[in-house]
Amino acid sequence: MEDLNYLRCLKLLQVLFIISSFKFSACEIKNTHIVDDSRQIILIERFGFAPDGHVTISLDHVSWRSNEPAAKLYPSSMGFCLVRDVSFPRLLNESMYTENFCVLSSKYVNLVFRFDKLGPDSSFSTSTTIDEPDEYNLIFGNCQKEFLVTMNVHTEMYNVNNNGEKDFLPAGQTPLPKFYFILFIVYFAFLGIWGFICFKQRKIVHNIHLIMAMLLVFKALKMICASEDKMYIRNTGKPHGWDVAFYIFGFLKGVTLFTVIVLIGTGWSFLKPFLHDREKKVLMFVIPLQVFENIASIVITEGGPVEKHWLVWNEMFLLIDVMCCCIVLVPILWSIKSLRKASKNDGKAAENLKKLTLFRHFYVVLIMYLYFTRFGIAMIESVVTYMNEWVNVVAAEGASFMFYMFIFYNFQPIEKNPYLAIHKDDDDEEEQEDDEDEEEEDA
User: What is the mean pLDDT of the segment spanning 330-350?
Assistant: First the structure.
């Protein structure tokens, strides 16, 4: 029994960590289709309500069936309810340890309506006002798990601003449209400065500098799409296609960022004008992982927790993200090892030591960036109130901007940059070391 309780606790913690790590939907006017679902708790949506918050729920084509011929349905055993986000872990814990648990009867929920209010045409519509502002989860509860439910659910969640207009953004996200637009201007200016530096130093510009410019382009376009996406959601509840553009440029930015990190880590176009086979394998492994990661991210964002396999996609997303973060560190370790050997040679020891120091700094900063954006942000989310949800975005984007500044400053095309010096002897040494490593692997 103790082992069973331990496993239940681990599963509960896992579910809570995954749920707290991702946003549930890309819009706040949502049409959800539930087909033959027997789950006792189906999480529809999460929303942060201000003092004048509203929830509208409309159902149609509601039906149910059971594989047990003798089963009798009690419509009052199904319905919708709201639960505060802080109480949601307690509700899940109660569902795991309470015999004959029914979410609609839990002390942690605010009941919206039960299915005994359904009309003769299996449809129903209701609207409720949130009296106590907080972050709430909208849940569908099924207390007769032997029945599979099918229905179309239309939900609208919004606050009313000072002008009496509907604001479909959660209370903690209202500053985000302006913030994303400011970031677009910042990255656009960043791109202009980088372009000026590359033009001024065009004689020593390498291919990697052009790829870094592409990274800034994709990042800037992602920010403007994020701004438009949030603005349209705030005004209309729908992204009007801006979410598609956001996903496209977010995908291109993600792939380009990890490509730049790998290429810088291997010293390509800086220390040597070519890639070895093992480095090509790293790129061929990281890029497909990034493709899968972005697909998983889109599924998570668009589908939301109402999907049956939502937790599986979340676990896949976390696994792929951790794998990418670990893999991009390998080329940097290879380069540090190579430079450490080269620093012992006479004549160029001082120059190689400078490169080695820069690589070490790059390695440390990269680890700090990856850990902060993956785990530090999650810790910030756990302590920040729902009304200050924008702080999480500011922290994440601030860390990204500082990381970009570090990379672009240290690896810019300027004369007397110790990292940019390429010598024929260095190339020969790299080839010799790679041959030795391959011989060791074969042995």
Answer: 69
**Cα separation of 252 and 249, whole Å?**
5
> Residues 374, 379, 383, 386: what is their CA dihedral angle, to the nearest 10 degrees?
20
Percent of the chain with pLDDT over 70: 82
State the average pLDDT over residues 273-300. 76
Chain position carrying tokens 């074969």: 442
How many residues are recorded in the chain? 443
CA-CA-CA-CA torsion sign (213, 214, 217, 223)? negative
Per residue in 139-149, pLDDT (tens digit) is: 999 999 889 99
How is the beta sheet containing 109-114 ordered, strand by strand?
41-48, 135-142, 78-84, 109-114
Return the closest-CA partner of residue 134 out of 162, 110, 112. 110
DSSP secondary structure of 397-434:
HHHHHHHHHHHHHHT---TT-TTT---HHHHHHHHHHH
Q: Both tokens of residue 430?
A: 């790299």
